[in-house]
Amino acid sequence: MSRLGRNEKVVTLSVFALGLAAMSVILIAPLAFAQEAALTPAAQLSQTQSIKPNVTKPVSITMNSNDYINGGITHSGSRNSADVIVNEAGSYLIVAAGQVGKSSGNTTCIVDLWLRQNGEHVANSNTRASVNTANDTIVLVSQAIMPLKPNDIINTMMSVSAVDQGCGLIDTAPSGEPNIPAIIFSIVRIGK
């Protein structure tokens, strides 16, 4: 049996180490890239302007800020900004949280907030808040877990009981703090 000299041992160990490194790149790197490419469809959107409808009938809520969005969801902050479009099928959690308030008046103002899918109201998604005093606010949350298909359109809807009191969803910009959007809308796929 032949014995390896010191330099031959170093070379043999180096070649072995390089082989292990190459194998790990071949085996592990594709998994890492595959996981990166398979992002869970999700978005968080918001509206940085107050929404005070001038009608008491239902209106769709626009959102002008894509705070986070990936390829599984489509939304434009400027064109059809009320539409949130799903690109991948699955079960989704949807949460719409509005900052309800009014800017004037002494009577109670009622605001309803709910979800709509492809032009149809989502059953049992409506919520209600009432505001009595100008400049008071309260957070109103509508949420749902539901199966969605590619090209499904989700909208958040609202109605107000009075149009003469500045009643609606209020955006507030406190000094030295983050903006308080009129609405924050979140959608994430939770299952296939």
Shape: globular
**Proportion of helical residues:** 10-25%
Radius of gyration: 26 Å
Question: Main beta sheet: strand number and arrangement?
Answer: 7 strands, antiparallel
The overall average pLDDT, rounded, is 87
How would you explain this protein's 3D organization?
Helices cover 17% and strands 40% of the residues. The protein is built from one helix and 13 strands; from the N terminus they run H-E-E-E-E-E-E-E-E-E-E-E-E-E. The strands form two sheets. Strands 2, 4, 5, 7, 8, 9 and 11 form a seven-stranded antiparallel β-sheet that branches. Strands 1, 3, 6, 10, 12 and 13 form a six-stranded antiparallel β-sheet that branches. A hairpin with a 2-residue loop joins strand 7 (109-117) and strand 8 (120-121). The radius of gyration is 26 Å and the shape is globular. The model has no long low-confidence stretch (mean pLDDT 87).
Topology:
Layout: H1 6-37, E1 42-47, E2 59-60, E3 65-69, E4 73-74, E5 84-86, E6 90-101, E7 109-117, E8 120-121, E9 127-131, E10 137-148, E11 153-160, E12 168-169, E13 183-191
Antiparallel strand pairs: 1-3, 1-13, 2-11, 4-5, 5-11, 6-10, 6-12, 6-13, 7-8, 7-9, 7-11
